Amino acid sequence: MTPASRGVGAPGAALRGHVTTGDRHDPHAQARAARAQPLLLHSLALFREVFAAVFTHCDIGTVVEIGVESGQVTEMYTGLGARRVYCVDPDPSPALRAALGDNDAVRLIEQPSPAALAGLPAAELYVLDGDHNYATVRAELEWILTRAPDAVIVLHDVLWPCGRRDLYYQPTRLPAEARHPDSADGPTIWHDELTPTGFVGAGAFTTATHAGGEANGVLTAVEDAVAAARDSWSLTVIPAVFGVGVLVRDGNPGAEAIRAALSPYADSSLLAAMENNRLALYTRVLQLQYEAAQHVREADTLAERLHSSRQQLDQLTRRLHKAEQRHASDLAALEEAHQRLAAVSARQATLRGAAAVIAELAGDAARRRVRENPITRAVRRVLPGRRR
């Protein structure tokens, strides 16, 4: 078989799907496409093929989207044929307002879910991507399963990390009894406990301190809501980008066709393996980023300590210099005093010598006066035998 007949390797060969391969003249096209993606893929916009299958097999006129990203996903619904999209977001950003304001088919509902659902007409498609915790998702599903049983429901984050562990956006509106103990630390693939090196919200959300058990996580909420429903519902889970679940009521028009269309994705061991690998790699990146930031903080602390030590050293050096100057001055003064003392000692020695000479001269003079004294002469004459 030649390269051309295989469809690969020949100049201009066509590939099915959305694969970016480049060619021998532009070998970096795939790398450029990879660079254009965020480091962490998270958007439902990546699942256009899944939504296209839903729109193909069901008449979707109205969509209710709970949890709005940037408006990109909303445009996808209208592009696929939705005539009205209600976007539920209690706190939209100015950028989101601007993005949604350009589409006449879109209505922004600035209320929290599930309370916002009661004021909206029943839809053919519900997309649940808001607060990823049991209490919120369970309440949303109970309302939809009861009041819009013919709808298709698409849920995001039905797998790790939120499938079996609650996440609470802050500040949370849930009462204390509807929440598990939570933490600012986040989950990681590499061990079961929360860690500051995992998926952390940095103030935006907290995570339940334990995983599993009852009333914990998005997937658990789906299972319990379906189990309590009057009708039979089937959940198809696509193991990619944190897991997307498609929930349809058995017997609804298009239900079997939707499940069949999604089966290649849901049954793909390749997708599941790639998702697990993606999560493992990304959480390792988070750990390395945390450790790098910790090293930077430690380096900053060491730099501050070094700067403080240098300041102290400079201060001690200045003090030593002043002490040396004082010491030199004291030495000079001491040398001067020594010289003065030497001079005084020399003068004292001179004076003592002069005094001795004077004393000797004075003694000689005194002896002469004694010898020349008349009485002395008389005594000498009287005592001739004594030496004179």
From TrEMBL:
Keyword Transferase: yes
InterPro entries, per the entry: SAM-dependent_MTases_sf
Start and end residues of each stretch annotated as Disordered: 1-30
Gene3D superfamilies: Vaccinia Virus protein VP39
Coiled coil start-end: 299-326
Source taxonomy: Bacteria, Bacillati, Actinomycetota, Actinomycetes, Pseudonocardiales
Single biological process term from Gene Ontology: methylation
Keyword annotations: Coiled coil, Methyltransferase, Transferase
Organism of this sequence: Prauserella oleivorans
GO MF entries: methyltransferase activity
EC number per UniProt: 2.1.1.-
Protein name in UniProt: Class I SAM-dependent methyltransferase
